Amino acid sequence: TIYNKKSNEDIIITIPIDLRRHYNVSSLNNFFTCMDINSNIVNSDITFEKILKQVKLEFNNNLTKDNINKYLSHDVKIGTNYFINIIPLILKKRLIKYVTKLFTKTATLSNLGPIILDKQYKKYIDNIIVLVKTTKYQKIKCTISSYENNLNIILNSNLISNEIENEFYNMLKDIIDVKLINSVYNI
Question: Helix or strand or coil: residue 106?
Fold first, then answer.
């Protein structure tokens, strides 16, 4: 598959990092930070294999203990900043909308990993599918999870065309046995 570049902007995917694993925390509360993976697409004939190689390299370079500490420190600084804390909530909401518009990435990928239920519930559930809501500025969200023998990769998009989903499916079906479930949810 060759990426057909129609934009001057790079593809940037935001990846949440589950910090429970890195800091040996067993809390059920959200404890994460994010890193960005940039494909740095510089020409129109880049292949999936080249992009995959770049992504693996970025993961290896960015997912170090020092970098994770930097990401977390940055988040804590913002959360404990005196000036941010004294801004009224109504102004914060407007500011967040503005900042979101400026710094939105191409998509978010969330890997929830295996979902494990108590035995008493398993007889009622065949599969679990998780959708992450798209936004006005981030039109594609991808969620990966597994339940029992099912690996679920959900591409949720509010784009007019489903070209990205079709390309992704076609690429996957050449590699593994895959089942496409096409559903539309109005939430």
Answer: coil
Cα distance between residue 19 and residue 41, in whole Å? 29
* Contact status, residue 44 vs residue 139, Cβ threshold 8 Å: no
pLDDT in the model for residue 18? 81
Q: 1 pLDDT band (50/70/90 cuts)?
A: very low
CA distances (Å), origin 6, targets 42, 61, 157: 12, 28, 19
What is the per-residue pLDDT across 96-141, written as a single tens digit (0 to 9) for each? Answer: 777 766 666 678 888 888 888 889 999 899 888 888 888 887 888 8
Find all residues with CB under 8 Å of 20, minimum gap 6, and list them. Answer: 26, 27, 31
The runs of H, that is alpha helices, within 10-141 are: 19-23, 48-62, 65-80, 82-86, 89-103, 119-122
pTM for this prediction: 0.65
Which has the higher per-residue pLDDT, 47 or 158? 158
**Coil, strand or helix at 166:** helix
Angstrom distances, CA of residue 139 to CA of 7, 104, 142:
16, 10, 10
Comparing CA positions, the residue from 162, 165, 171, 167 lying closest to residue 142 is 165
